[in-house]
Amino acid sequence: MAPFSIPAWQAALQAVDRSPSHLIETHKSSTHSGHYTFPDPGLFVMPTADEKKYLYIQSWLQARDAWLMRLQTERSLAMSSQHWHTFLSMDLSVPVQGSTKAAKRRQDVLEMLVPKSSIYPEVQTRSITNQPLVWQGKEYPSGVLPPEDVVQQILWELYELNFIHELQSLDRRACADLNLSDVAQLVERQMKISRCFPINSFRHVMIPSENCGLAADDLNRRFPFVVELLHVMKPWRGEKPAIFGISMDNLHDSTHQT
């Protein structure tokens, strides 16, 4: 169910120097440090029982449209991996009772996930018991894991959205002189990041028929997206290879051989 990693990306991650001396201690004061805009697709892959896989997919699809809608207008929507795990395991329509640690975590998840009705009056929680799963406008029987290709589509979208938003989060941490309160500047950065990917938006991501963008097998087809990624990384803090000193116009006009 998990797609293959981009080889160069995988190799680069393995080469990262994880020495504690490189950590920025102030990151611990960030409200959303270590949080994720979307649930980790690995949470859907790990359970061995189809019943648990179905529950996770059902919970995500119930919240998906409202969550994507909120991302368009609200900043810093993110939860910890534990909160995402709690959400995927619960029925949003069942009232939270008790004062245990688990009940508190469930309540926290509800407050983060469910938008205020005055802002989104059309979004409400409802029981999903015996309700069919709906994906891309098509219904699938309740209580039964959808066909494998449908599950792959759902998880592919999550993998892609996580990849895009993690790059966006990294950019906000690494970009020098970026004013996080300047909406126009943030939109400009987001537009630059979007050009690193061959999709038209940050939602409704379909499985392509072939490797493309940064994962394209042909280097000539991959090169323009690598250049766009370099463009994003140019203002990042830290030392960079000499190629970062080349003007963007020259980079766009060059080929991967040069």
Sum this structure up briefly.
By secondary structure, the chain is mainly α.
Task: List low-confidence stretches.
Answer: none
Mean pLDDT value: 82
Quaternary class: single chain
Q: Approximately what portion of the residues adopt beta-strand conformation?
A: under 5%
What order do the strands of the largest sheet run in, or round the barrel if closed?
1-2
Order of helices and strands: HHHHHEEHHHH
Shape: globular
Structural class category: mainly alpha
Would you count the extended β strands for me?
A: 2
Largest sheet: 2 strands, antiparallel
Question: How many helical elements?
Answer: 9
- CA gyration radius, whole angstroms: 20 Å
User: Roughly how much helix do the residues carry, as a percent range?
Assistant: 40-55%
Describe the structure.
- By secondary structure, the chain is mainly α.
- The protein has helices at 7-14, 42-45, 50-71, 81-88, 101-113, 148-174, 183-194, 219-233, 248-253; strands spanning 133-135, 138-140.
- Helix 4 (81-88) crosses helix 5.
Give short descriptive properties of this protein.
mainly alpha, 2 strands, 45% helix
Write the SSE topology.
Layout: H1 7-14, H2 42-45, H3 50-71, H4 81-88, H5 101-113, E1 133-135, E2 138-140, H6 148-174, H7 183-194, H8 219-233, H9 248-253
Antiparallel strand pairs: 1-2
Helix pairs in contact: 4-5, 6-7
